[in-house]
Every structure is written in structure tokens, then in C-alpha cells.
Specification:
It contains 21 helices and twelve strands. It is α/β, with parallel strands linked by helices.
Amino acid sequence: MWFRKIWNVDGGNIVGYSRLMRRYTLASSRRVLDVAAKDGELRVFIVSGEVSGDTIGSRLMASLKKLSPVPVRFSGVGGTMMSNQGLKSVFPMEDIAVMGLLELLPHLNKLRLKLQETLEAALLFQPHVVVTVDSKGFSFRLLKQLRARYNQKSFKIPVHFHYVAPSFWAWKGGEARLRGLAGFVDHILCILPNEEEVCRSNGLVATFVGHPILEDVWELNLDTLPHEWKIEGNSEIFRRNHAIPAGAPVISLLPGSRLQEVTRMLSLFANTIELLKVSFPELVPVIHVATNQHVKDYVTRFTNKWPVPAILIPGGSLHQKYDAFSASSVALCASGTVALELQLARLPCVVAYRAHFLTEWIICYKAKISYISLPNILLDSAIIPEALFQACTPAKLASLTSILIHDDGLREKQIVAAEKVTRLLCASPGNLDNLEEPHQRWRFPHYTPSMIAASAILCHLKPY
């Protein structure tokens, strides 16, 4: 498969980043950092539309503040995590947290209004840099309209960065559509190692920074440099704190981060648990709740009526999350970033995906990959069981989960594969060295994805 040809699955990563960044020191007076220094501050307008993007954005903001020799001021749209780093969001992030294709239709008018509100806020802020995080539908419309407005008014044009490349590799004709981004995206910060090379071959400046999920390792290990990409929570503390009987199996449920997704998946998961209770009467479900306020409220209401008692884990606590993973025998998750979190925890899982039936039909028609979960895509193998579309039923999920609980061989196969997957997601520490000038050495405790991303932003060369 395409992914396997580009990546050396059993060896190192392809890293073209260092070659790209060598040219940044050739004209340092044109760097974003030097332009901001003349104004006495770096103004960053940053936008995220979902929970995973809020985490990515907050870590990028923290890294920019650490690396920039001038004060950094932020404006834009984000959630709780980005607010903790100093962002005053133009409006609640949840207002644009909509997923799907057909699912967007009822929200189009609201999204247009929020897009216009964001556009005006960005123009008023006069940023040196605009960073959009994932959410490509909203992000690309914003960047395109911003560039058009700046060109009309002959303003100083900010540098546009998009963090998390669009999944061009998943769709028929996806790579060809990359070429259209060059008119309004100046630099793409890629989180998968193949993406940099393909973006550059299609006329885009791109940098592979590593996958943001790896920063969970640094955050939980504090000042310890990880020797392997793995997180071990404390299962004993988790069981004791929640009075879970010895020997009772625990299952982690991760129904997603957007309200539409959670309302669809949580009911499926609830019915699945009822079926599993027949074979595992002591089964304890643990629901991981996203930091999205609408999701929190919905899950609380839903579980109050649920006949099966469940433990709720708040999304903002990494320690509680990985302690719960450590105590779990398996996980049942919606397709998304959470599958990679489970790889770090070495927790075997089943991946589920449902959407509007027309959205599912479009995906079947347009997709060019055989799997939906990133670990399976990276390794081009059905390591993780997937229940998709019409096949995603409580009976199917219960069957796949039951088999995984009983079969030690399948569980071990996922654990071994997780080591390969997490290695592929890591960028080379040497990338940062190419950003440092001999007379101005930056010192970092770790070479995190957000540090590399922040360095790429600060050292980006503005055109004449």
C-alpha cells in the first residue's frame, strides 16, 4: 500500500524537514520572529474547532511562549485548554464543532456567521501569524477569505499556517486537491511522516513535526526523556478510588468528542455493554468524556438514565485517563485520535464508526483506503478490529469485544503493533538543530512536536 512504500515501517522515518529548514537561516531578517521583534511582540491568531485541536493548539501556544524572545499575544477561537494558555476565544469553540458531510447542512447558516465573526476578529487583531488547527472545512475557508481581504486592502499580509495536514491520502483525487492550497496556506505542519514529502511535491511548504499525541508521554513523565513511546497508568489506584472489585473486568468506552458523534455512538456502546454483561456480569464500563461542554452535559444526562452503572472520566485529566486505560482489559472507541492514545497505553481495542447513511455512502464511494483507524492504515493491516457503517451494531461490537477479551494472542498482536505505530509518529530530534543559528542557541528540555512546530513558525521566511 501507499503508506507502506513511503514509510519504513520496521526502521526509521523519512524526515525531509531538516533539508527544508536549512534555508531558514539564509535570510534571518525575513523570519517571522524578526518581523515580530520590530513590533515588540508576536501576534498570533489561532483557531481550533474541536477538542483534539484545542489540545494541539494549547501546546503550540505554550511552546511559542517558551521560544519567542518577545512577548506573544493571542486571539482566535479555542476551548478550555487554549484559554488556559491565554486565549480569549471570540466565541465558544463548540459553536463550530460539527463533523460529517450531510450532518453539516442544518448548521450551515450558523457556521457562515461564525466564519464572518472570526474573519473580522482576525482583521482587527492584525496578526503576524494565523494558525488554523485541523477542522479543514472551516479553516481553509477562513484562510482563503483572509488572504483575499488582505490583498484587497493592501495590508501587511500575515503568514498562514495550517497544523494537521488534510487527509489527502484517504480520498480519491485528494493529492491533486493539495495544489489549490498554495494560494492561501503558506506552511503546513504535518503530523504524519509521509505528508511532508507529498505536500512539498505539490508546491506547498511543509514540515513533519511528529504526532501531537506523543506529547502525552512527556507531560506524564515530566522531565524524563521517554526511552519508548508508552504510558503506564496506575491500575491499582484507579480500582481503589472507584471501589472496583478484584477480578472484575473493566472496559474503557470512548464515544468521541463532538456532540453529534457522541449522541450516535454512546447509545450503540450502551446496548453493546448490556449484551456483554451476559457473558461478563461483573463488567465495569468507564466512559471517557471529552472537554466539550455540550458533550459533558449530554453524557451526564444519558448515564443518569442508563441501567448499567458507569464511571465517568473527565477529558482534561491525563492521569485519570491513563490510569483507567491501565485498569481496563479492552477499549471500545469511536474512530479518531483516541485510537492512538490507546496505542500509547498498549490497550487492545475495537474501533467503531457510524454516520448519516448518505455520509457513509459518500465515504464508501470516495475513499481509497481499506481501513478507518490510523494504526491499521499506517501498517496496512487489520490489526485492530473495525465495525463500520451498517455493520456497526451492538451485536457485532459485543462479538468483537468478547473475542478480544478471551484471545490473548489477538491482544498481544495489537500490543506489539503499537510499538511500530508509535515509532512512526515521531520526528527526529535533529530537526530542531537545523533551526538554531550558531550565535543564538535555543535550549529545550525535550524536542516535542509542538516545539518543532513553534520553531517552524518562528523561523518561517516571509516573502519579499
